[in-house]
Amino acid sequence: MSTSRLGRRSASLLAIAVIGGFSAYGTVLGGHVEEAKGIAIDVADAAGNLAGFKVKEVNISGHNHVTPAQILETAGIKSSTSILFLNADEMRARLESLPWIASASVRKFYPDRIEIAVSERQAYALWQINGELKVIARDGTPIAPYSDDPRYVQLPIVVGEGAQNHVGEIVDVLARLPALKEQVRAAIFVAERRWTLKTRNGIDVRLPEENLEGALVALMDLDREKKLLNRDITIVDLRLPDRVVVRQSDAAAAARAEMLKARAKSKKGGPA
Fold first, then answer.
1. For residue range 190-236, what is the model confidence (pLDDT) as tens digits?
2. What gap in Å lies between CA 218 and CA 214, rounded to an integer?
3. Share of the chain above pLDDT 70, in %
4. How many C-alpha atoms does 76 have within 13 Å on its Cβ side?
5. Cα–chain center distance at 76
6. pLDDT tens-digit profile of 41-90?
7. Which of 70, 235, 245, 247 stands the most exposed, by the fewest C-beta atoms within 10 Å?
8. d(CA 61, CA 23)
9. SS3 17
10. Which element (helix H / strand E) includes 145?
11. DSSP 4
């Protein structure tokens, strides 16, 4: 580049900076700090672009649920962005504020290229709270509202306040007991202390606060030996370590009462 061309470019940059500086200063005096910041960034980008540092290429990797357009918008990359004034750490922090993104890295390659790599959270379970169903990650972070996306349909369901923070413990235990897992429709977190399983045929399985897996293994043993979960019952209570309490359905209880009544009547009317 000739000296004269360099001089003209420097003069142009200086003029832009001076004009932009006065504009931003006036905006600050008017109480519009954020607007002033935006103006200052635009001025700096314009200067950087004139100097040959306009961002021309952005390579994005690791995204699945988050679109490239969302990543660019969140990162603040526009058609006028200059690589000179781009803050990679601030950009990374903004990207990691997106629910789907667990971590991100941003690298600048002068004069005009940026590489963004993101690692997304995985959909782990569905969390029902206040009548809403949300997709959550293993760490309990809500990452999306529920939809009929095929990736969500088979996810386990947890219900209640605090359930999202303990989802790993119940999902992991059920994963080790696949025969029981198939029968469970949802896991309800009760009083933010313990779980109750709701089976697909309407039985409530009340679990203890501790030794969750031991209680479920005992339940599976009972089901294998006595077909417990296929009986006409409404509650299986496993909270006591030395016994299992079972409650019959109203219909089953009424039928049993009638049977006992008939049996007693038969005995009473028999031979002396």
1. 999 999 999 999 999 999 999 999 999 999 999 999 999 999 999 99
2. 6
3. 77
4. 18
5. 24
6. 777 777 777 888 899 999 999 999 999 999 999 999 998 899 988 899 99
7. 245
8. 38
9. helix
10. strand 142-145
11. H
Q: What angle do CA 191, 195, 200 make, to 5 degrees?
A: 125
- Which is more confident, 24 or 43? 43
How many CB atoms sit inside 10 A of residue 229's CB?
Answer: 19
> 130: exposed, middle or buried (C-beta count within 10 Å: 0-12, 13-18, 19+)?
exposed
Peptide bond into 156 cis (omega under 30): no
Q: Which of helix, strand or coil describes residue 166?
A: coil
pLDDT at 264 over 70: no
User: Structure tokens of 72?
Assistant: 């660019």
Give CA angle at 32 (28, 33), nearest 5°.
65
Phi, psi (degrees; rounded to nearest 5) at 28: -60, -45
Distance of alpha carbon 52 from alpha carbon 34, whole angstroms = 27
Which H/E stretch holds residue 118? strand 113-120
